[in-house]
Specification:
The chain is an alpha/beta fold. The protein has helices at about 30-40, 50-55, 60-65, 80-85, 100-105, 120-130, 135-155, 185-190, 210, 235-240, 245, 260-280, and strands at about 10-15, 15-20, 25-30, 45-50, 70, 90, 110, 165-170, 175, 205, 215-220, 250-255.
């Protein structure tokens, strides 16, 4: 008979099924996105790759400082992973981990897909199921839905719904644009408008930008370096020609709001609401 927390059980995932005899306590992840979803559930991973990526985001720094998480390197160091003796390994199908090698170390589950577009169904729900944290999942989803509802109402009251918005990172030669499922909630839930013609694009050239000319710009720092490009845009004549720049509707953020991150998306919803409310207040 399963015990109160739902274990033992078999977890269905993208590489088959994995039997878990008990609730995992020492969880390792093969990418920082999986580690972030654990943190959204109130769990500190025991080990993870690419911790420096999470450390670059201000919203995680305090939480990361409270825990001693083993850094497995940019790619999984299998010897280091075996040494920490995890009782569950969480991988995503797009990080191309060695499933057989990982499974030889500990029970391993593989979730996620870049082609799927629901943060909760694709990531949070299966991770909560594998870790036995369904109550924590429900708590987080309730917080998210409450924040989303408040943001939608606040943006409508500020009369900023229906304005076109573009989320981007800039280098000296290329603009990285976020138009897909990682920013879907900001459009579909909050009432912002997509820039026509950008669907499916991930990069554009500088000279293309005036063609889209959004009402609002959210500009993120390069989270893996190139911080000098972060807001060194003022001297670019193309930049100065944009409606959002002329109107002062340009907001500096970090890339956590533009990724497939649970807490990052929650932070993004609140950040966007607050910035647009401030914009309305100064009119």
């Amino acid at each position: 008979m399963p015990i109160a927390d739902g274990f033992p059980k078999t977890i269905q995932h993208r590489r088959g099924q994995t039997y878990l005899s008990r609730k995992p306590l020492r969880i390792a992840t093969t990418n920082f996105v999986a580690a972030e979803y654990l943190m959204a559930l109130g769990i500190a991973p025991h080990a993870s790759t690419s911790l420096s990526a999470l450390e670059a985001f201000p919203i995680y720094q305090e939480e990361l400082s409270r825990h001693c998480i083993v850094d497995l390197g940019g790619n999984v160091d299998m010897e280091r992973l075996a040494a920490v003796a995890p009782d569950l390994i969480i991988a995503f199908d797009w990080d191309r981990s060695d499933y057989e090698g990982l499974s030889a170390i500990a029970p391993t589950v593989v979730f996620g897909s870049k082609e799927e577009v629901d943060l909760f169904a694709t990531y949070l729900n299966p991770i909560a199921e594998a870790t036995g944290e369904l109550a924590a999942r429900d708590t987080f989803v309730a917080r998210y839905e409450s924040a989303s509802s408040a943001a939608k109402e606040g943006i409508a009251e500020a009369e900023r719904d229906g304005l076109s918005a573009l989320f981007l990172m800039a280098s000296s030669t290329t603009l990285y644009v976020y138009t897909g499922w990682t920013t879907k909630a900001y459009y579909d839930e909050l009432g912002l408008k997509r820039c026509p013609g950008l669907e499916g694009k991930t990069t554009i050239k500088w000279e293309e930008l005036p063609k889209y000319d959004p009402d609002i710009l959210f500009v993120a720092g390069m989270y893996l370096g190139q911080q000098d490009n972060r807001f060194a845009l003022q001297d670019n004549p193309i930049w100065r020609s944009l409606k959002a720049v002329k109107d002062g509707r340009i907001y500096e953020t970090d890339a956590s709001i533009m990724g497939p991150l649970a807490k990052g998306q929650l932070h993004g919803i609140t950040f966007i609401k607050d910035m647009l409310a401030m914009d309305a207040a100064r009119q």
